[in-house]
Each structure stands twice: as C-alpha cells, then as structure tokens.
Design goal:
Layout lengths: L1 H19 L4 H8 L6 E3 H15 L6 E3 L7 H10 L6 E3 H15 L6 E3 H18 L4
Helix pairs in contact: 1-2, 1-5, 1-6, 3-5
Length: 137
C-alpha cells in the first residue's frame, strides 16, 4: 500500500514539476499559494489545474484528447491515467478528480491545506521513490 501511495504521489510531484516548470519548491509553492497565507488549499490547486486544463484543451471543446497532448511525452503518459472511463477523452471532472486525490496524498494531516513542509517532505519522498523505482517523466 505504501508503495502505491508513493507511486501515485510521485505522479503528482511530476505534475506539479511540470506546472512549476521545474522551479524550486519555494517558487512553485508561492505561485500556487494565491492568497499568500503560507499554505495551499484545494481551491488554489484546482484554480491552477483548471488553467492547465484550458491550455491543454486547445480546440476549446471542453475535453482533452490524446491528439491535444501528443506533443508532450509526459502529458501523453498522464493522459492514459487521467482518462478514467477510457473513452479517449479527459473531461474536466476526470481532471479535477485526479487533482483532488493527489491533493489528499500530500495533505498528510488531512486538514485541507498543504503546508510548505508537507510539500517539501512529499517532494523528497517522491524523488527518492522515483530514483529507486526508475519512474520516467
């Protein structure tokens, strides 16, 4: 079970790294902490994820297709995981459900907020997991 959680979490680290453009933890944390209160709420994360969804949905049909992410190896790999009903498209509900589940993995104390310490601890564990299990980006 622990390896499954770390494996899922590793995907979040990679997703956050993609959103952050491989910026240091403090930079992407500050970017996600819109109200500057020192933690990231699910609403703040979902705002960024919704913006990402809009960017990925190039033809503005409210779904992401495999063709729309074909230019990115990392998003092409994520697409299969995000398409929960295997219909060949990722809708906003699927995209948001993925974000909520990944948020819960990092929110160790389950208080509805990700602190910089939780993010740092998660990042450290996920990188260690990725290194020892050869997780590809």
């Amino acid at each position: 079970m622990k390896s499954i959680v770390l494996g899922l979490g590793c995907g979040l680290l990679l997703a956050v790294s993609a959103i952050a453009g491989e910026q240091p933890l403090s930079n992407w944390f500050k970017a996600l902490d819109h109200n500057g209160n020192g933690d990231i709420s699910l609403a703040e994360l979902q705002t960024v994820r919704n913006q990402r969804f809009s960017v990925l949905d190039a033809n503005r049909d409210n779904v992401i297709s495999a063709e729309e992410v074909a230019g990115s190896a990392s998003w092409s790999q994520r697409f299969l995981r995000l398409d929960r009903n295997s219909d060949g498209y990722v809708n906003l509900d699927e995209f948001e459900a993925n974000g909520r589940s990944r948020f819960a993995i990092i929110d160790i104390d389950d208080n509805g907020k990700i602190t910089s310490q939780e993010a740092f601890n998660f990042q450290r564990k996920a990188r260690k997991y990725a290194t020892t299990h050869k997780v590809s980006r």
